[in-house]
C-alpha cells in the first residue's frame, strides 16, 4: 500500500498543496489506465521556487505515489528533499528542459498510452476526423524519434519542435502535454487521449471523414463558450479527485 511508502517531510503549505495535487494526478492517471508500469512521468513546479519541481519516485507504481514520496529536484537534477528514491533520467532530461525554458510550463506529463503512441507512430499524426481532434489541429508540434530521451542536447530540438504549442507528439514514442496549471494539463491530456482513441477506432473501420479547416476554426473559436469557471480543467480535475478519494485516500499522505 502507498501509505507504507510515505515519509516525514518538512515543507511549506504551498509545496504540500502542490504535492497533494500532483499525487492526486498520478492516481487519476492510474484510474484512467494511463500508467505504464513504473515508467513515464508527471511533474509540477514547486510554488515560489522557479528552479524546483516535483516528480515521481522511480521504481514506484502510479498507484503507490503519495504526496510525501514525490521527489523534489531542481532543474540541474539535484535532490532537494533528501528523498531515498531515484528519478528516471529520461523523465528528468525532458521535463527539466521544459521547466527551465518555458515560464508557463508548470505541469507536464508524458505518457505511453496505446492510442496516443499509435497516433504518434502514424505518418499523418492526429487528423481532424473527430470532435476532440478538432480541438488540437494546428496546436500540436511533432518531434522525430531519436531514441530514449536521456541526452541533454536533444532538449534544444524538443523545444524548437514544440514552438509556441502546448503539446509535443514524440513520433514513434508518445505525447508530452504542458499546462499552466495541473488542471489545464490534465484536461488537455484527457481530450488528446479521447481524440487518439476515436481516431484509431475510425481508421480500423475504413476511411474517415475529415473536417474542413473552416469548421475547425469555428469549433476552436467557440470552445470557450462551454468553459467552466476556475480556469481550464479546474472543474474536471476536482471531479476526478473526488472520484479517487472514494477509491483510496492514501495519496494524500
TrEMBL record:
Source taxonomy: Bacteria, Pseudomonadati, Pseudomonadota, Alphaproteobacteria, Sphingomonadales
Gene3D superfamilies (UniProt xref): Class II aldolase/adducin N-terminal domain
Record organism: Novosphingobium tardum
Pfam family for this entry, one: Aldolase_II
Protein family membership: Belongs to the aldolase class II family.
Every Class II aldolase/adducin N-terminal domain range: 20-200
Membrane-spanning parts: none
Identification of the protein by name: Class II aldolase/adducin family protein
SMART domains: Aldolase_II
